[in-house]
Specification:
single chain; 91 residues; mainly alpha; 2 strands; two-stranded antiparallel sheet; Arc Repressor Mutant, subunit A
Length: 91
């Protein structure tokens, strides 16, 4: 397995080859979610080697990962602003 980036899949984010599982998804489960690599592998139905490869990529490319996190936050904010969420209705 390798990490690939293709514009037509997951918006070009780095992902596990042959899968729609991004490096960021794996990292968020491990780093943010506190899951063990074994649990991440089990939850995503991938090999432990794939989890380790994604995590290695994540830690080797901190600037790229920070940029992806920033884009995700911007998208979340945009979706909140454009939704009919209760927070918006109360304003």
């Amino acid at each position: 397995m390798t990490i690939v980036e293709t514009e037509d899949t997951l918006g070009g984010e780095p992902r596990l080859e042959g899968r729609r599982i991004s490096v960021m998804q794996v990292a968020e489960m491990y780093v943010d979610g506190g899951m063990s690599p074994e649990t991440v592998a089990d939850q995503l139905d991938v090999g432990l080697d794939e989890v380790h490869e994604a995590l290695a990529y994540y830690f080797k490319h901190p600037d790229e990962m920070d940029e992806i996190r920033r884009k995700h936050r911007e998208l979340e904010e945009e979706l909140k602003e454009n939704s009919g969420s209760p927070e918006r209705a109360e304003r």
